[in-house]
C-alpha cells in the first residue's frame, strides 16, 4: 500500500519566528501583496514583549520615577518610601499579559499573515516543515523566500552545578512573581546591570560578579564607570575580577551557595546568569541548506543589508534580527525587517507598495539604551572601534553636570558626554551619553550619525534653553572650529 502524497501549502514568504522582526516583516510583505505564513512555537511578539524589553522597563520605571523626584528639592519631601513591590509586579503584568499573546496574534492575522503554530525546521530548498505540539506536521513551501527571525537565547557559562539549581536567566528575572531577599548576578553587561538595578529598587540585596575589570566593556569607559558608581550608590555590591566556579542549592532551605575563584562563598536566594546571548539556530536544519554551517553556532548567519543569507545558493534564505548576528536590539530587528520586506517587494515587482525604502544605501545607526541609575546610551562607533576601522579620529568630551538645563532638571545631576568625530570628513561617528534623560537624548546623536551631518551644520541646530540638550552645543565648543 502506497503512502498518500504529502500536502504542501504554498506562500510567497514563510517566516520562522513571530518576534518583533518577524511581525514587522510579515506586515510589510503582506502590505506589498505577498502571501505570508508565520511559524511560531511560542508567544507571538517574542521575548521582547513578555520576558525582555517590556517587562524589564516596567520593573525599572517605578524606581527611576522615585529617583527623579528625590533629585528635586521640593518634590523630594513628598517621597515617603520605596516602590511597592506588589504594585510594580502587577503593573508589569498588565503590560505583558503574563504571556497571553492573543492580542498580538489577532494583530498578525489582521495584517494579512497566516499564523502557523508549531516548531519550524528547514526541510530543503524553500521548504519548512512545521511540527505542532501534538506531533502533527505540515509542510510549507515558499515561492520567493524563507525568512529566519528566531531571535537569541541566553549563553550559559561553565559553572559547576549550574544545570541543577534552577538558575535564573534574563527571562526568569523579568517574570518572577516575588522579590528575592538576596540575588547574585553573574555578568557585567546591559542585562546584568538593568536587572540588578530593578530588583535592588524593589528591596533585594544584590551582588554583581563581574569577571572583567569594567561594566559594559564594549562601550566607552565613561559609561561603565558611571554605571558602576550608580550601582554602588544604590547599595549593590559590585565585585570586579571575580569568576563564579560552582553553584549549589540546599534541598531543605532553597538557599544557593556560589563559590568564586577568590576562595569566597556567596549565599543567596536566587542566582541570575546574564553573560550574553547567542543566535537561536539549533534545530532549524541549517546544516542541510547552508554550506558549512553547523547545527548550532555562536555566530549569526552572514547576511547582506537586505537580510539575504549570502552563503546560500539561489538567494532564497533570509535572516533578520538576533539570528543574523548583527545586533541583539529589538529596534534593529524591526529596521532589518523593513529592509528585507522592501527587497522582497522589489523582487516581486511591487516596490511602491512599501514606499521609497532603499535598503543598503546607508549603514544603519541604531542607538543602545541602558535604563540604570544613571542611564547610559550610545550610538555609532566608540573611539576604539573608530580607530580600529581606520578613521582619523578626534573626540570631544563634556560633563553634562555643567549644562544649565541639567542643573535645573535634577539637583546633583551627574552625567558625561563623549563625541567621536571623523576628523577628515568632520562628521559624527559615534556618541555616548550618561545621566538622567540619556536614553531620550541619544536620538539626536542617532540622527547626526545616520545622516552624516557635518559639524558645520550642527552648529546651526540651536538647542532650546534651558534644556539638557544644550550638551550638544557644549560638545561642539569642546571640539572646536
How does this structure look, described?
There is one protein chain. This protein is α/β, with parallel strands linked by helices and 481 residues long. It folds into 3 domains: 8-45 and 101-153 and 279-354, FAD/NAD(P)-binding domain; 162-275, 3-Layer(bba) Sandwich (FAD/NAD(P)-binding domain); 374-479, Enolase-like, domain 1 (2-Layer Sandwich). 31% of the residues lie in helices and 23% in strands. It has 15 helices and 21 strands. Strands 1, 2, 3, 4, 5, 6 and 16 form a 7-stranded mixed beta sheet that branches. A hairpin with a 4-residue loop joins strand 12 and strand 13 (265-268). The chain is globular and about 75 Å long. The model has no long low-confidence stretch (mean pLDDT 94).
How would you sum up this structure in a few lines?
This protein is an alpha/beta fold and 481 residues long. 31% of the residues lie in helices and 23% in strands.
